[in-house]
Design a protein that fits this description.
This protein has 263 residues and is an alpha+beta fold. It has four helices and twelve strands; from the N terminus they run H-E-E-E-E-H-H-E-E-E-E-E-E-E-E-H. A six-stranded antiparallel barrel has the order 1-8-11-10-9-12. A four-stranded antiparallel β-sheet has the order 5-4-2-7, with no helix packed on it. The longest helix has 36 residues.
Length: 263
């Protein structure tokens, strides 16, 4: 009887042993960043926003001098009208030659030449349409707009500077949602699982705590920190968290107990 009571007491003691939270540290990192590059070569006439500026999707970040591109559009429109006129002549000649050939009043060779000229004229129109479309796209590219809401974190262009196609102009980051990259020791990694709830707060503002869950757990140790990466995403609609902030995170004992009961 005494042995039974002792065994029962030991079992209750083990089950009631407190399970401590896992405390982690890390940094916030932007999830959505875009590089704004020039799609054409030209001289920058206007680049309004500075580093730190908040921009909206569609905001014009910079303008490239458009005069040469407007002239190119006019040139391609005139060229398209010219080749269309030539196509009209070649088509009319082809139709007439076909009628004459049906009446045996024209040689097959002459009809073949008219057919070839007609097909070449159609190809010239198609090519002119492509050139006009390209000219219009280039003209539209003189206005460089933001593809999303966000903050300017890097400006690499100045008014009056010449830029080439592919040159970086701005970097824009959206921080409505941030990644938090935490570091877990070899001892703690076994106590964590994907989907586990964590509480996150910035070192600069420990009163502001945000609940989230673990999204990813690395399976290979980082050779620099000698820790395993643990990633969490946090909603940040008021932008109170900034990329690069030092972050603390903690699991809850309840979650740890549930986790440990699975093994």
């Amino acid at each position: 009887m005494k042995k039974s009571l002792i065994a029962t007491g030991l079992t209750v003691a083990l089950l009631s042993t407190p399970v401590f939270a896992v405390d982690l540290i890390g940094h916030t990192k932007s999830k959505n960043m875009i590089n704004v590059v020039s799609e054409i070569s030209g001289m920058v006439e206007m680049s309004e926003f500075e580093t730190g500026s908040l921009v909206s999707q569609g905001s014009v970040l910079a303008e490239i001098k458009a005069q040469d591109f407007e002239l190119e559009v006019s040139k391609q429109k005139a060229n398209l009208a010219l080749v269309r006129a030539d196509l009209s002549i070649k088509q009319s000649l082809y139709n007439r030659y076909r009628e004459l050939r049906n009446k045996n009043s024209l040689s097959q060779n002459e009809l073949d030449i008219a057919v070839a000229d007609f097909e070449a004229a159609k190809a010239a129109v198609a090519l002119a349409q492509i050139e006009l479309k390209k000219a219009l796209l280039d003209l539209a590219s003189t206005r460089i707009s933001a593809d999303m809401d966000g903050y300017i974190i890097n400006r690499s262009v100045e008014d009056g500077a010449w830029v080439s196609q592919g040159d970086l102009l701005y970097q824009v980051v959206n921080i409505d949602v941030l990644n938090v990259r935490l570091l877990a020791s070899e001892y703690d990694i076994g106590k964590l699982r994907v989907g586990q709830e964590v509480e996150v707060w910035a070192e600069a503002n420990p009163e502001l705590k945000v609940r989230s869950s673990i999204k990813r757990i690395g399976v290979e140790i980082d050779p620099v920190t000698f820790a395993y990466p643990v990633e969490v995403e946090i909603n940040n609609p008021n932008h109170l968290f900034k990329p690069g902030m030092s972050i603390h995170a903690s699991t809850t004992p309840a979650n740890l107990t549930a986790s440990n009961n699975q093994f």
